[in-house]
Amino acid sequence: MVLLSVAFDxxxxxxxxxAVAMLGLQVVHSLPRLKWLRGxxxxxxxxxxxxxxxxxxxxxxxxxxxxxxxxxxxWVMFAGVVAAAGxxxxxxxxxxxxAMGNALAQGLIVFGVTRLSDLRAELHAARGEPAAESVxxxxxxxxxxxxxxxxxxxxxxxxxxxxxxxEEIVVLGREAAARARETPGxxxxxxxxxxxxxxxxxxxxxxxxxxxxxSVIYLWQMRPPAWVLAGALLAxxxxxxxxxxxxxxxxxxxxxRHAAWTLPVQLALACLPLLSxxxxxxxxxxxxxxxxxxxxxxxxxxxxWPMSGAIILGVCATLLLRGVAPVENLYWTFNAAAVAAMxxxxxLHTGLVFQVREARLALAEIAVVKERRRISRDVHDLxxxxxxxxxxxxxxxxxxxxRAERELADIARIARRALADLRAIPRDDDPGLSLxxxxxxAREILTAAGVTVHVDASRRAPVPSxxxxxxxxxxxxxxxNVLRHSRADHCRIEVACxxxxxxxxxxxxxxxxxxxxxxxxxxxxxxxxxxxxxxxAAVGGRLEAAPTGxxxxxxxxxxxxxxxxxxxxxxxxxx
Length: 575
Prior knowledge:
Elements: H1 2-7, H2 17-30, H3 40-49, H4 57-68, H5 73-87, H6 93-125, H7 129-163, H8 166-180, H9 200-222, H10 226-247, H11 259-271, H12 284-296, H13 301-321, H14 326-399, H15 404-424, H16 435-448, E1 452-459, H17 465-485, E2 490-498, E3 501-508, H18 528-538, E4 542-548, E5 551-559
């Protein structure tokens, strides 16, 4: 629409071969799928056709110069095309100014619409890049923060274990465990930056200024009475200024402020010149038609196009009633429609780029939130057991000095393992969990805490490593909850496989002292069971956790093939 608005001359409805060739080359320059054909040769061909291709040729050539030439030289060449358009129309001041103004405005608009369309496609194709960059930045930040908060504590535990300072280990272990259980902040703020191309606003301003200057020269040349000239100049300035205001980039779905009165005011000012006592001036109606599309298409699209079309038809009808010659009527009606198409096209593509950039930022924000939750969840699930074990063994070393040396060695070993897990979490590396290792660790830690442990894995069969690691994570958190939330004397751990499913069940006989994390009635801020339920559900399993007759049970039922369907299967997974 924009290219036809620039190239078509209603006073010469049958275009010359030069005009057709000029337009064809511009299509090559503007449409993304044909851009591989463009180059210096096509720009040179347009330059040769320029003097014979009609009144739209300067605007097309000016746009092509900006699209193909590189660096600051393109703006010098652009100015040369604008000047050449004026030199080819020296019959009077208005013709010269009109040719230069059209070349300036049309060239900028065609360039702007083309580049904005290209930029929108580029941004859409690379919409995931900001998310990846933001996740990488979040991982770097998390790595620094975790190392400063928990890494330093674990390193200190290793040092204290070497010195035999058990009481300090217990205090430090409890503090570190509390930090590991903290939930991440809900809000994530990313730098927003400039959401529109840096040239969009200058192009809008320059294009509108070109129309304004040409209109002023046209009115001045008509030499109407002073009061008519003053009123017309005010109307032109008001219409163009309001058009620029309506066209400024805004977030998707946001109308210009006060559009409920700025749009009617612009429409009234645009229609007044049609009623001028000397002769009508219809071009301003195109600005009003463009504003209707810009303002209303987002919220009242059903009415925008009919209303804009009615404005253009109103121009034709008014000129007809005022006795304007048919050829001149056709010229001015098309001129108004062309202005509407060009200005709406420029505003539309600027808005589309805005939307794509907003979407890229939204994806980045979502990715950062998800990554922050993953890191927090992994810290909670993977380190909670190790930190609880450090506290339990530290307390045991305090109570039984004769076992202190062995317990301190275990504390140092557990702290080193936790430190390795901590450093793997921000990178999203596989922590290498094993259900066999966790079963052995559960027996050791719970026994050290004075809990009698019974492990039944007689019906266990080999399972894929991702399932094995998932069950190991569940068991690690289950043991942590027994230590933190119960007064258990006995704990039973069962692992069984059959019918393509594997079940892990952990039961203890001590009702939660303060509500197991994630269970009904838990204290505010707990997230352990919630984390585990999300992990299990994400790969097609089910997890349940609830008090059971003076004790507590957590059980998980997981298909051996990750992502399987457990509909209709009763799932039980317990602590």
